[in-house]
Specification:
homodimer, 302 residues, Rossmann fold, Isopropylmalate Dehydrogenase, 2 domains, 5-stranded parallel beta sheet, 11 helices
Chain lengths: 302, 302
């Protein structure tokens, strides 16, 4: 089981090398991370995009693209389609967003003919390594699904479980977060969490999964807080997955971890037939590399 | 301007001593914090509650209650009423919750005859001292108002401004948080934040106040993140107040700060004619003392 981001990088190096298709690779930061991951032996990239611009960036940054497959395409919608098609056609294992709007890339991902559509919901899974916690924390969904209903939340949880299991977690503990521990009809987050817990009890999320809720963040990650508040659950103080009821809570917790708790992170979109790596401009270099490694390990173990 | 919790304690010691009425003082942790604050010269307490139980706890914990005014009352609703009445009747300056349900205490606070009701909305203001930030961060409302509408959010902001001004902030920068920076009709948090910003521009929040939004947490507290995302605002990276759109986001950010960023904190309910101190069982001893000091400084400077 991968418990740190360093474990993740090591696993990505050790396993079979995955092929990464990069949509609109003409982004300096993305290109640098892709070349680094390639040189570390984590991936074999295929760059789709404006070949001239890619070459100019590589020259400027001193990146050696010798031996890389580059598919020249200027139109962004077409760039997205080609990058995705490389994956659906079996020539690549996962895809990464470069200098292109997320919506354009996801439109290609969801395309019925050349895309990577499944029965699942697309959802964003972030993974944090934070000092003071004994393993990686998966946070979902602070980036894509805004105010999911119970069936959507169930799919979001399934995606996070798939990510956790791809990283070797046999037993996945999911905390459905809210502001309180008691189900309160005036707080939909608590009601939904109660329903999701019940679905878990009935086996909906499969073997080796415990879904608990509603619970506040302190109970999910601190055994001491759970003891003081007399909250008993195998998930208390030992959560792997934090499922948030709305995008604001996910975004807020994630940003607090990154900016105030100096957490390192990796992020990926799950729910398509292959992971989609999507990094933010404000991500550190290290976090971008972590995200490529995360996509790579999930692609190899799905 | 008070920039750290230590400044807050020092200010509370230095100023005129405030009288604190404690509702249902028969709580070991609360009583210990109250006695400590009293011995530090921050407050003069009046204990309302079960006198026998209070005495037994004091004996057990070795607390010296000599010279304290104690009002014996066993009935909890009556305890709350008496504690609140001490404030409305001018015999105390603020009130603190002991071993009593918050709802019982707040019912007395909101009582039209003996209570502390004003035109304002009651709201919870937390204050965090967190490493890596250059001043205190006020977070509201992660405890009371669940899904406030724009008029309620405006009142919540006014309460936080009142707290910040009572602590000597002449210029208060308010960040209306959301998950994105663009107003998006599908995300009510962004729409409301845009409206609140406009109200600020029109002078609704008074002199020396800048209300900005929508913005994600990173932009509110990191100038670097704001620069990378080209978000320009005097509030960017320099927020005093974080106003959250729903209780889940407030609760999540607050718990992340406390448990992962080792933040110290203080909390108080604003919007009544005197501050109401309300600490959680899971609060550290230090945080309980900070909350008493916070109530005291606000009571002295409202």
């Amino acid at each position: 089981m991968i418990k740190t981001l360093n474990d993740l990088i090591e696993q990505a190096k050790k396993q079979e090398k995955m092929k990464l298709s990069v949509a609109a690779a003409q982004d300096g930061e993305v290109l640098a991370a892709v070349v680094e991951a390639s040189e570390m032996g984590i991936i074999e990239p295929v760059l789709v995009g404006d070949e001239k611009a890619i070459g100019a960036i590589a020259d400027e940054k001193g990146l050696d693209l010798n031996g890389y497959r580059i598919i020249d395409e200027q139109d962004l919608a077409e760039t997205a389609r080609k990058a995705v098609w490389l994956v659906s056609g079996g020539q690549a294992d996962f895809v990464m967003k470069g200098l292109i709007d997320t919506s354009i890339l996801l439109k290609a991902v969801l395309d019925k003919e050349i895309g990577l559509r499944t029965e699942s919901q697309l959802s964003h899974v972030m993974m944090y390594e934070v000092k003071g916690y004994h393993k990686l924390l998966y946070l979902t969904d602070g980036g894509m699904n805004m105010y999911p209903d119970v069936p959507t939340k169930a799919k979001i949880i399934k995606n996070a479980i798939a990510a956790a299991k791809a990283l070797g977690n046999q037993n996945v503990k999911v905390a459905c977060l809210a502001a309180k521990e008691k189900v309160n009809p005036k707080m939909p987050a608590t009601v939904d969490a109660g329903e999701l817990k019940q679905m878990g009890v009935e086996g909906f999320f499969g073997e080796g999964v415990t879904v608990e809720g509603p619970m506040a963040l302190d109970l999910a990650i601190s055994k001491e807080a759970a003891e003081i508040k007399r909250y008993e659950s195998p998930v208390a103080g030992d959560a792997d997955v934090l499922m948030v009821p709305n995008i604001e809570m996910g975004n807020g917790i994630g940003k607090a971890l990154s900016y105030f708790a100096s957490a390192s992170s990796a992020g990926v979109i799950m729910g398509a037939s292959a992971p989609v790596v999507l990094v933010s401009r404000a991500d550190t270099h290290e976090n971008k590399l972590n995200s490529i490694a995360l996509g790579s390990v999930i692609a190899a173990n799905k």
